[in-house]
Amino acid sequence: xNTIKNKFLDxxxxxxxSLESKLLVGVSGGIDSMVCLDLARKCxxxxxxxxxxxxxxxxxxxxxxxxxxxxxxxxxxxxxIFRSRIDKTKNIQTEARKIxxxxxxxxxxxxxxDFIVTAHHLNDNVETFFINALRGSxxxxxxxxxxxxxxxxxxxxxxxxxxxxxxxxxxxLSYGEDSTNAxxxxxxxxxxNEILTLIDEKFExxxxxINDTILNINRDKKLLNxxxxxxxxxxxxxxxxxxxxxNNSEIPNHVxxxxxxxxxxxxxx
Length: 269
What we know:
The N and C termini lie far apart (51 Å). By secondary structure, the protein is of the alpha/beta class. Helix content is 51%, strand content 12%. Helix 2 packs across helix 7 (161-170), helix 5 crosses helix 8 (187-202) and helix 5 (122-134) crosses helix 9.
C-alpha cells in the first residue's frame, strides 16, 4: 500500500532531492501544513519552520500560532514566527503571499537552507485547475501547480485531502480549523464547497481522475515546449543580454507566442 509517508519519500526520490537537504517548512497551523511538517520531521533531520500570523482571524490566528509553537518545542524544531497586519484595502491573498515568501526567503538566506516546503496537495491542484480554466487560461494555467519551482517544493501534490485527514487522526495531530474555509466568498472556496463537492458526490474518485487529467496535460505541455524549442532552434541566437531572431513567415504565430510569452508578452502583442 502506497501510504502518505511513502508518497512523501517518493517525491524526494523522483526529484533527485536528498533527504539530507535543509528544509524550511511553511506552516499555517492548519491540518494540511501540520501533516506536512510531521512528515518532514519523520523523514528529514534538517527541518526548520516558518509561520506568519496575519492577525486576520483574531483569536483563531493566535490559536494556530500557539499550536505550531507547542509542536516545535515538543520536537525541538527551530521555528520563526512573523506577525504582520495586512492592508485590507488591497487584495488580501496577494498581499499575504508577498509577505509570506519574503519572510521565507529571509530565513532561507540567514540559515543557509536548501528548499522551502509548502503543503499544497492534490485537492488544491484540482481547485487551481478549475480556477484557471474559468479564467480562460492556456496550457500553463490548466497544467496545475508545479511539484518544484526553483527552491520551492511541494511533496504532497499527489496526496488527497482524505489521506491527510486520515493521517492526522492516526497520529493524533493538533491543528487549527480555519472557520473562513466554510464560507464561499472567495472563488477558491466557492469551487471547493459548492462545485467540487457536487462533482465528488456524483462521480466516484473525481479528484484523483481530474488530477490524472492535469498530469496528462503536464506531459503534453512538456512535449509541446520541446517541439517548439526544436522548431525555433535555428532561428534564435543569444547575443549578450538579448536575442537575435531571424524572421521566418513559415513559422505560425502561435509557435512564436510560446517563445515570447516567457518575456511577458500576451498573444495579441
